[in-house]
Amino acid sequence: MSDQHFAAPGRKGFVTVYMVFTMLTLIPMAGLAIDCTVLYNVKARLQAAVDAAALGAGAMLQSSTDLSNSTQVANIQDAAQRFFNANYPSGYWGTTQAYYSATPSQDPNTQVRTIYVHAEEYVPMLFLRVLRINSSTVAAQATSSVRFVSAMIVVDRSGSVVRGGNNVTIQNALNSFVVNTPSSTPAGQSLFVDGRDVIGMVSFGGTTGGIANNAIDYPPVSNFRSGASKISTTITNIPFGNNGTNTAEGLYQAYQQLLTLNNTGALNVIILLTDGRPSAFTVTMTPTGSSTCTNKTAKTGFITANVAYTWPPPPPTTQGGQQGVDGSGNPVYVYTFGLYNQLFTGMYGSPCPSSCSDMAFVANSGGCYYNSTNTNAYKDFPTFPATDVHGYSTTGPYYPGNNGNGQSLSDPAAVRYASFNVADNVATAIRQDTTIRPVMFVIGLNEPPAGGEPLDADWLARVANDPNYINSSGNPVYQSGQTAGLYYNVTGAGLAAAFQDISAQILRLSQ
After folding, report:
1. Which H/E stretch holds residue 248?
2. pLDDT for residue 339
3. Coil, helix or strand for 264?
């Protein structure tokens, strides 16, 4: 008798039922996995398309001037549509469009412009139809915001610029940067948009402005190309001359313009172009009782000390007149005269020639020692104050205690160190501003005239707060908690390229 086992008839039916229920579970799960993969791919492609539409239309948004103008709005929306279509083919995975919109808008307070792109697509299901799920909807949104620009350009017009032969180079580069369309921007797009962006300019020698005491060459306006007063004319008429280098006053006046505008929603920018070390600062000084000034009221002006192109400055050897020798053994002298009602104390190997542009005495200078013999300013003002006219320290911290030279007006080293300190303190105040947050781009025109004083690249990079710069001691100059900028060390031949890179940086930061 064989030992065979036979399944009970009821068990065959159980297996069949089990397989049916298993298939009813596995088929929807497999279908769900496949259809979810399709939905994921459509979602990714749709998101990329709306992102491209928002970013692409952002360029048109940046160059527009009036969002109440239906033509400009239509051009922005058309740009968004074209970027969307280029990145999401019609009928992708069999989809049909359920919804699409591209809406530009502008905040009435900050004037920040935004374009919001929203798209939805019907996606046909493949396997989930067995569960009567014929389609699903996928949505994607993207937003691009654009800030307008408030920029102040600060231009060094000191004597070294002229002696280095770079004044025309600077004017040409500035016109290309502000007036023309930079080659670094997208075709047909200007960096600064006339009628929307706000642009101003201040030049500095011993004082700021070309025609008056601490004036602004070109007050910031939005119609800088189309207005009755054009910035191109101001650039052409920058009064380069035999001036000092009052970097502090140039930065201060530019910063005050941005503070007055108070465009908190804008990208606020200060662009400093200089070829030298600070040599001047603005002060208020009162003549001493022994001064021969007929009018002994306080007098506001700037003082400066050049050092026959020697850095650091040599120590003084006598009071007044000859102050020492430069690195070549040539005598160094102090001379005092005025510019546009400003005091000016300069050091040259001989009295400033008649061609100097800075020759007007401060008001009420009659009878003063410096009025009769411009080597004698120290007799009227033996020392300069601990702060400049705007309250910034002349004694530190960049050169603490002026490197031990004190505050003697007859000491060129003390004056030069103070010039650095004041400028450094103004730049620090700008970087620490948390309301309008100015970004500083600093161009060091590293092309001194023959025998001229070299740039202090480390200090200029510190002014910009360049996070990428390592100084000559191997240390970074970046100061955390302060707005970062960039420093460019170029010759005249590289000036245009520096402005092109600044153009690209501004476009990036404004979007």
Report:
1. helix 247-261
2. 26
3. coil
Residues in the chain: 511
- Estimate to the nearest angstrom the gap between the alpha carbon of 22 and the chain centroid: 67
| Whether the Cβ atoms of residue 120 and residue 98 lie closer than 8 Å to each other | yes
Q: How many other CB atoms are found less than 10 A from the CB of residue 69?
A: 11
**pTM score, two decimals?**
0.78
Distance CA 267, CA 410 (A): 43
pLDDT tens profile 224-248: 998 999 999 999 988 887 677 899 9
Q: Where are the domains of the chain?
A: 12-146, 149-276+438-510
What gap in Å lies between CA 476 and CA 342, rounded to an integer? 37
Task: Classify burial at 92, counting beta carbons within 10 Å of its beta carbon; exposed 0-12, middle 13-18, buried 19 or more.
Answer: middle
* Alpha carbon of residue 312 to chain centroid: 30
Contact call for residues 465 and 431 (beta carbons, < 8 A)? yes
CA 188/CA 499 separation, integer angstroms: 18
Strand partners, 138: 121
- In whole angstroms, give the CA distance from residue 418 to residue 279: 8
The label of the residue with tokens 């023309």 reads 180
Produce one character per residue of 97-108: b if its CB has 16 or more CB atoms within 10 Å, e if not.
eeebebebebee
Phi, psi of 142 (to 5 degrees): -150, 145
What are the helix (H) ranges across 146-236? 159-163, 167-174, 231-236
Q: Which two tokens stand for residue 360?
A: 């007007």
pLDDT-based confidence at residue 373 (cuts at 50, 70, 90): low
* CATH number assigned to the domain covering 149-276+438-510: 3.40.50.410
